[in-house]
Structures are given as structure tokens and as C-alpha cells.
């Protein structure tokens, strides 16, 4: 089901100060996709999620889920959360400690007063799906963090909702378990073909799970796109920086050629991707990801996009070196092959493909 | 809905504020008044009269020795037990849980009486026994001394000291000790040079809390101190209002002011120290079980001491009381004693109209008082945990205020208030006083219950399709029940045994169990006292059992109703 959010605003008051949690958000979340709201803490992503589910009421605007308007300030509509037919997985899992696993998962069906046999078979089926068969009679508190997370997921899946909302569901798991669960979650959700709205501040989680990502900042979204679009071809300085390590270089457009834009920058003349919004003389910021900068071994030639610099620091992180290279007083972060023969203090030459250097227009 | 919510916090502040602040304000005004009938006049007469009394210095000295002595006894014993339990391989560790909880269930007045029965110089059982065996002229022990008071008060406050020290010791970062041992120090040296200094805030906190408790204690000073003419502040106040020709509530208030001031100062110090010791705890590494110290040959002798302590704390008092209630007069257990046993004292108590009235009153106060107290605690805890506005913070401080007030002083303050109302000399005055004084006992378990109900648990139920009432019935109430039950049990048991406030507020017609027991003690009617005391323990235990059963039942109903 499609979720459409129109001009939704919400303010919070904290210690006498007004905080704009959401400011005039317009957003359409397409049906049957995993849609992620990504952003730093305080950007409004959780507030937006809670407005969709009905645990928070916006100050203005309209929210429609499928065909139904669930909130409208003007039309004075408020559908309470229990009537919206959504499911949600909470950051704390919100497993009820006084109930067994079975009761926790059966709860959404019990609220609808479904027949007992039907509840039993649905719960069993769902527990099988999340690989928790045989745990029915365990007290829910006697489970590990990962198992509790699955109970929360099973409880969200059991009523076969059209939309599931996730509020940072993996943030309480340890790193290794988080990676595994991420993979599982992706396969569960793609298999079920339902609309999932996923809130996280973890960029790797967002990139690996989502069909589309909305990056949020200060109560509004700044960019929406597929993970690849967001990572490789963002328009925004904030987004490019937030989604991964980035070298941001300011400069001025010197020329626009057939296939590249030529920019004069502090490290020299750079050939980069063509950007439709720029013209000669414009001030721009360029973004190059550290993994696309290559160290040229042996005798370096002169040519386009070749720069000379000194290795300032070198950090071995296993699958690569994380190097800081100073080129004409500008510090670049570079991922260097672990097998490369470089040392701190070396003078080296770097190059990168113009296609991997993109212009941030905003 | 919104209006009731906004009105909730101020109205609770008004109620709790009245309960805790009213007696203090009345006490202050009362201490400057000419007499209970002349409230609102201003005179320093009562202060001059009470603080220039030549005996007053003596009372202060006694109070200081008594409170500090008890603090030493309780803290040292608690340290010893906590160390054995958390850090060594001593066997039967469940005993430590029992030691830390069960003695709280034995009313202080009965515990004190049992020691009098064992160690009083004229016919204490141990004295009689030793005199028989060793053919002594005089009794070797006399409980009616400062030493006796310190011993008994120290034992009574041992559980409190233990409950502060054991967690601190368990949370202790063992690597501090290990690094000491690696540097070549022995176990003993590590204990004295590293462990104890690091635990110092917790040790001081326990020490101070015991001083506060023994300053407020009335059972030990009245049962053990007064027969030996050893008066401390609490009994001095009692003497001023309960004996002599005319009760002088003005003077009681003036003396009470110094007890109150001392208590509040100490509680502030305690708060400061506990926040310090929590700082230590958060630094320590978690989830790492320390290696237990192998006791080797000392294992069973040390365990013997623990076993003896638990016997003395739990079994002995009840045993002595039960025995005394059955024999006609004090005698060492023997074949003759057993042949002379009868239910005479029990029958006398059951025929005594005042004892019966006190039974009835205490049961009423226990059941009705605890129920009203818990209802108030539910609302207060809800606001403290869930509303969390600055006003809720005010409510929290107010509701824990009574912890720092000695009961008898609060009683005097309330007396000044109640004589001006129709509540004077009614059971309701006791009920209000009880709830005011013991409100923290209800609020503690309920705040932890509310804290457990994370807002997500409630919200998750809403999202799952449960409406407000459905969520209340299936999520909130079941999760609250354990807190309600323990709050009710704590309050009911405190109310059934209440002595300190009651000696001030209870009038003819509103006698309660503990006051009646005190009267029996003053008249030396040990047999009747013991019978009534056993009934008191029985009533408390019955209330505990019934409350727990209802709690379990309610939880069961929840499970079946799905």
C-alpha cells in the first residue's frame, strides 16, 4: 500500500524552546518497497514514523495509507493506531515480559477475536517463518536479544499487514548479529512483498536493505533515491557526506566539455562528471569517494586527474589502508590496496576516473 | 482526558504535600507556642525549658552513643556477611537472602522483647540458665544498658546495612583487587588496602542510614532503655507527652526539632554519599564474575557464625515469644516447664477487651490503610515515572521526604494538627499518619513497576490493534500487579506493627497492637505480651499470604481471559 504524506509539520516543546521535529514534509512511500528514512539523530525520522503509525499526531497536514486518510488536520480525521491495520517493530522490541512467546505473537490476532484454532495455526506458521519453532511456551524474557528481535518481527508479520514500520530494529544487537539479521530481514521482506518503512541512522543498514532511501535533516527530507543513486550520485553535500566517507573539494567551473566538466580546485584542475545545473564560473563542490582514488605505482605520468601528494598518515584496517594524502594543502582520504608498498612520508601520485567524481549542486 | 491529566499532578502534590509537610509545619509552630491549646502564639519558653534541662545533655550523650554504636554493630556485621556472600565460596548462600529479608518481617518491638526475655537481670532465660549451671549469685548479663540497646538495635538494622553493602560489593571492580594481588599483596592486605577504601562511600552510607534509623527507633529505647532509665531523644519525647502530670506537646515539639534537624542533615549526607558510591559502580566493568576466594579450613567455622546469626535474627525471637506465651512465668526450658505449659495467657488476651480492640484496629489499619496507601502510591508513581515534568520532580521529592523524619517527631507534629480537627482520637488520624509516614514503602515498588512498563510496551499493544481499555487490561494492569502486591504487603505489615507514631496518636478507643504490647511490657506481663505478639506476627503473615495469593490469581485471570 502506498503511503502519502502531505505538508506534515510537528513541533515539540522542550524546556520552553520550540523544536521543529517535522517541517512541511511532502513524501510518497511507494507500495511494496523497502523504504528507508535515514538521518542523524534529531532529524525527525522517528517522529515521521510515529506519525504514520498514529502514536504521534502532527500539527498540520494529511497522511493517507492506501485509500484511507488516517490523519487530516483540515478534515479533522484521526484514526487511532489500533484501527490503522499496520505493524511496527520497536527499537526496544517491546516484548511483553509477562507473556510467553506464543502470547506475544498471538496478541494482534487476539485483539481481533479470531477463532483459537486459527490463531494457533497462524502463530505456528509465523514462528516457523522466523525460525523460532519450539519456543512457543518460553517466557519471552528468557530469550536472547536476537531471538527477541525475531519475536517482535513475528508479531509484526502475523496479522499479515500491508505495511510494516521498523524503528531502528537492529540497533540493540551486537555487530555480528546485526549483519546476519540485516540479511535475513531483507530476504523476509522481499519474499513477502509488503510495504516496509524503515528508520535508521546507520548508513550501511540503509544502503544494504532499502529499495529507496530518503535522507532526512532538520525535520525534512533532502534527497530521495535508490541506494546507488544516493551513494554515487547525490546532489547534496550533506547527503554525500552522511552516506559514506567522502572527499569534498570546492572549486570553480572552468569549462564544460562534451563528456566532462572541468573544475579548477585547490588540488588542481579536475575533470569530473557532467552536471546539467552548472555553467562556467559557478562555484561547486566535488565529491570523490576514497575507494575510487587510485595510487599510481611506479613512475607517474603527467595527465588529467593525476595529482601528486605526500602520505600524511596510513592506517592498516585489514582489507585496506586508510590513508590521508596531502595534495597542495588539501587533505584527501584514500583507500589503498593492502598490498601496496607505501609508507608514511612517501611522495605518491593519485588518479581517479572523472566518472567517479561528481558535482554536488546543493 | 487532557484536563484530568493536567489536574493530576497538582492535586497529588497537594495531597502528598499535606501529608508530609503538614506535620513538620505544625511541629515548628507548635514548638513556638505556649501550649497545645494556644496555637499560633509566639514564645521561646519551650525551647528554653527543654534545652536548659540539666538532664538534656545526658540524653544527647546517650543518643549519640546509642546511634553510633548501633551503626558500628550493624555495618560491621553487614560488611562481614556481604563479603562472605559475594566474594568467598561459603556454602548455603541462600541463607544470606533470608538474613537480609526475613528479619524485617519480625516487628522491632517483639525482637526487643525477646532479648529482654533472654537477658534481663531478674529472670532472663539465659541469665537463669547460667545462674543454675554455674551457681552464680547474680545474673551475668543485663540487657537494660546502653550496650544491650546497641546490640539489639544493631541486629535490627543489620538487614538495611546489608542491602546497601551487598550490591556495592557485588558491583565492585575485581581488577582493582587483582592488580593489588599481582603486586604481591596478600588477601588480607588487599582487603584492607584496596577493597575497603574503594567501598568507603557505601560503608559510610550504610553507617549513616543506620544512625538515622536508630535515631528514629522507638522500640529498642522504650523496651530496653526505659526500664534501665536510659533515655534517648525518642524516649525523652515520649516521656514528655505520655507520662507525668500533663503532656506537654510544646516541649515535645521543641525537643523534636533537634531530632528532625539531625535526621534531615544525615539524610542529605546519605544522599550525597550514595550518589558518590553509584559513581564508583558505573565505572566498574560489568558481566565479569570475580574469582571466589577459597576459604579452605575457615569455611565451616565461618558458616557456623552465619548460621548462628540467622538463628539469632530469625528463629530465636519467635521461639522465645512462643515459649513465654505458654509457660506461667519465666523459667528455663525443662521437663517441669513443659508440663506446666498452658494456653492461659492466650485465653486472657482473647478475653481482654482492650487487646481485642487493638487487634481489630490494627487489622483495619493494615487492610484499609495499605489499600488507600497503595492507591495513592499508584497515582504518585505514575506521575513520577511517566509524566516527568518539573512538577513531577517536586512530587517525587515530597513523597520521599518522610524517610528523613523520625516517626515520633512526625507523630507530635500530627498531634498539633489533629487536635484542631474532628479527626482527633479517631482511627482515621492514625490512618492518615501511617500513610504519610510510610508512603515511600508503597511508592518504591510501584515506581519500579512503572519503570518496567516502557512506553513501547503500551504503544506496541496499540499498534497491534488493542484499544486503550484492552491495553490497560492485558498489558498495563498485569505488569503493575507485582508492584501493587509488594507495595500493599510492605505497607500492611508496617501498619500492623506500627509503634512509633501510634504511641503519640493512639488514644483510648484507638489502641493498636504495638501500643498494647508496649503497655504489657511496661507492666511486665510477658506471657500476655508474647501471646499478643505471636498473634501480631500471625496476622502480618496471613496478610502477606493473602495478598500474594490474590496477586497470583489476578495474573492467572489475565492469562485465561485471552
Keywords for this entry:
A: 362 residues; alpha+beta; six-stranded mixed sheet; five-stranded antiparallel sheet; 8 helices; globular; B: mainly alpha; MetI-like fold; 77% helix
What is the N-to-C succession of helices and strands of chain B?
HHHHHHHHHHHHHHHHHHHHHHHHH
Q: Which spans of chain A of ≥5 residues are poorly predicted at pLDDT below 50?
A: none
The total of beta strands of chain B comes to: 0
> So what's the overall shape of chain B?
globular
User: What is the CATH class designation of chain B?
Assistant: Mainly Alpha
| Count of beta strands of chain A | 21
Q: What is the radius of gyration of chain B computed over CA atoms, rounded to a whole number of angstroms?
A: 25 Å
Query: CA-to-CA gap between the ends of chain A?
Result: 32 Å
Run of helices and strands of chain A: EEEHEEEEHHHEHEHEEHHEEEEEEEEEE
Instruction: Please tally the helical runs of chain B, counting DSSP H or I stretches of 4 or more residues.
Output: 25
Main pleated-sheet profile of chain B: none
Overall residue-averaged pLDDT value of chain A? 88
Name of the CATH homologous superfamily of chain B:
MetI-like
- CATH architecture level-2 label of chain B: Orthogonal Bundle
State the helical fraction of chain A: 10-25%
Calculate the mean pLDDT score of chain B and round it: 86
Span between termini of chain B: 28 Å
Folded structure, characterized:
The complex is a heterodimer of chains A (362) and B (562). Chain A has helices at 45-53, 101-111, 116-129, 145-157, 175-192, 203-209, 227-232, 237-243, and strands at residues 3-14, 17-29, 34-38, 60-65, 68-72, 77-78, 87-89, 163-167, 195-200, 212-217, 220-225, 247-256, 261-265, 268-272, 283-288, 294-296, 306-316, 321-327, 330-336, 347-351, 357-360. By secondary structure, chain A is α+β, with helices and mostly antiparallel strands. In chain A, helix 2 crosses helix 3. The two termini of chain A are 32 Å apart. The model of chain A has no long low-confidence stretch (mean pLDDT 88). Chain B is an all-alpha fold and 562 residues long. Chain B has helices spanning 2-31, 45-51, 54-87, 94-101, 108-119, 125-134, 146-170, 174-182, 187-198, 200-216, 219-225, 233-242, 249-283, 299-326, 335-339, 344-351, 353-387, 390-401, 407-418, 427-452, 455-463, 468-497, 502-505, 513-522, 526-560. Residues 281-287 of chain B have low confidence and may be disordered. Chain A binds chain B through residues 53-55, 80-88, 90-94, 96-98, 103, 106-108, 110-112, 155, 159, and chain B through 452, 454, 456-457, 459-467, 470, 474-475, 478-479, 555, 558-559, 562.
